[in-house]
């Protein structure tokens, strides 16, 4: 049996309007087109669905039965199709995210790739910025939300902990500390340190970890980018402390620092501001990926 949705919609319109012209107008079709759909439907079913007079069109018993049954089915189908369409629209558009550089490199690529595979019509625009600029971008509404490092609790942001990222020692393979499986923080006493500057959200946390152990930091260089830091370590100018999510090149090695000190990686948005459905999709994917087991 070959019956189309167009035929069923035309039938329902004629049954409800009891008039071909008014039914055609409600469907934005020509009257001959509606008449043809009804004739084809009756031919396919092998039964007459309407009694026609010059003044009105009245459903037959079979027509009334079909009207009651098809009315419910088509209403439900329209609801299903509308829901599917709205879901498709919900996943089309652009989301702006501000992220600190170490997370832009260590966390966001997987998220962007995952969203591209799941939602092909969703575009993520990443704003790779220093911590202070991430907070400013979220505060000013320039981005949908941010990925930051343990921001101060000023009350102007809604904050959700995403994960805890431990700090590790970064050094050359021929450095004496590379011989240890784990390196106590106190071993950094007197070592030449190359650290990120205070535009990084991690720097104050590293300072706090050193100060809490009365370690006098011998900071020989401060940089604005991890790549610069790693190049300097490669050149033998010193060692560094870096988040585990920001791995160095294979020419360098990392060692866990004990006892473990971590930075809180958080999602932030303007306080009491709802995310758009698109931004919420990405927020939820970041949340899921941060709890996924490593591959």
Automatic annotation (TrEMBL):
One of its GO terms (molecular function) is DNA binding. Keywords: DNA-binding, Transcription, Transcription regulation. PROSITE patterns: HTH_LYSR (PS50931). The keyword Ligase does not apply. Residues 3-60 form the HTH lysR-type domain. InterPro entries: HTH-type_LysR_regulators (IPR050950), LysR_HTH_N (IPR000847), LysR_subst-bd (IPR005119), WH-like_DNA-bd_sf (IPR036388), WH_DNA-bd_sf (IPR036390). Transmembrane segments: none annotated. Belongs to the LysR transcriptional regulatory family. This is DNA-binding transcriptional LysR family regulator. It comes from Dyella japonica.
